[in-house]
Specification:
The protein is built from 8 helices and 15 strands. With 279 residues, the protein is α/β, with parallel strands linked by helices. The protein folds into 2 domains: 91 residues, Elongation Factor Tu (Ef-tu), domain 3 (Beta Barrel); 170 residues, Rossmann fold, CATH 3.40.50.80. The strands form 3 sheets. It has a 7-stranded mixed beta sheet, with helices on both faces. The protein has a 6-stranded antiparallel beta sheet with strand order 4-3-6-1-2-5, with helices on one face. The chain is globular and about 50 Å long. The chain binds flavin-adenine dinucleotide and FE2/S2 (inorganic) cluster (FES). Flavin-adenine dinucleotide binds next to β4, β5 and α2.
């Protein structure tokens, strides 16, 4: 069924969480069963009346009362207007949309690579793993340009207690590892190498991570990426989000890497990564 009419969404509170980013607490006024079945990695459309609509991912998933949270980075008109809204403002919600991450791994060692705000779609996977101790070994490597750009401060403090959580900064910061997450792969693969990769962040980082994992023996069907494309309808109608013959809003945003390679055809992932890097 096409979900085209926004439902009422209450803005509960928002606080600064990284440079130009806010952690936003929300409540769907009349939650449905489908809201309780959201998977980490799926997304919703947030409407600001009189301004517009844009896709965002869930940080915490909707509970029985419809409470959930999101991380919003200020990029343009809608996000700027959202930052100016007071607690209690009525917004609009459509969703959930798309497909989430695979959550039940037959493999024990799973590596998550996140860059910048790309940590947000992986938050639910990390929380799920911390709660249920599955998979047996989950390692996270999170890269940001500099310390102020790191997001999900409260969640990271919690995750550091229970998981192997490595943080890197492009610029030298005392107490932090320097360089991109890729520069630390050798260490991650030195003993008990990961068997599965989930990755979200800038496309060059995701494609380079996928290729580095392929070279180190992880099969393409054990590598997953979350793609970001322009979206309008979120329901397979407008065609704004095409990746080859696939609608990212329906088949994605998470794609298995062998499927991604099939969709991009002859374009080399590293050439695509290179292209993005210089855009
Ligand atoms: C599935 C999905 C999940 C997302 N989850 C989050 C999230 O959890 N948190 C978050 O902060 N943002 C998320 N985004 C991105 C967010 O939807 C956009 O940044 C949105 O356009 C912001 O609206 P705006 O009016 O403030 O900015 P706009 O005026 O729409 O855009 C500002 C700038 O960003 C560029 N831009 C916008 N969207 C895209 C895109 N998809 N690809 C490339 N460039 C783009 C525009 O060209 C423009 O330069 C997600 C996007 C997708 C597709
Ligand atoms: S956003 Fe309209 S078809 Fe995907």
């Amino acid at each position: 069924m096409i979900d085209a009419t926004p439902r009422r969404l209450l803005l509960l509170e928002q606080y600064a969480d990284g440079e130009d980013a806010r952690h936003v607490s929300l409540r769907i006024e009349q939650p449905r069963a489908s809201d309780r079945a959201v998977l980490p990695g799926q997304f919703f459309m947030l409407t600001l009346p009189g301004v517009g609509e844009a896709p965002f991912t869930y940080i915490s998933l909707p509970d029985a009362q419809g409470h959930f949270s999101a991380l919003v980075r200020r990029t343009g008109r809608l996000t700027q207007a959202l930052f100016e809204q007071p607690a209690g403002a009525i917004l609009g919600y459509r969703g959930p949309f798309g497909r989430g991450w695979p959550l039940f791994f037959s493999d024990n060692r799973v590596l998550l690579v996140a860059g910048g705000c790309g940590l947000a779609p992986l938050a639910g996977v990390i929380d799920n793993a911390s709660r249920h101790q599955l998979p047996a070994q989950l390692s996270v490597i999170y890269g940001a340009r500099h310390a102020a750009a790191q997001v999900l401060g409260r969640e990271r403090a919690r995750w550091r207690q229970t998981l192997r959580f490595i943080e890197t900064c492009d610029q030298a910061v005392p107490g932090q590892r320097q360089g991109s997450p890729l520069e630390h792969f050798a260490e991650l693969f030195a003993t008990q190498p990961p068997e599965v990769l989930l990755c979200c962040g800038p496309e060059p980082l995701m494609l380079a991570s996928a290729e580095a994992c392929l070279q180190r023996g992880i099969a393409a069907d054990k590598i997953w990426l979350s793609l970001e494309r322009r979206m309008h309808c979120a329901d397979g109608l407008c065609g704004h989000c095409y990746l080859g013959s696939s609608y990212v809003c329906q088949e994605g945003p998470t794609y298995r890497y062998d499927r991604y390679l099939q969709l991009v055809g002859n374009s080399s992932p590293l050439a695509i990564a290179q292209h993005y890097r210089f855009c």
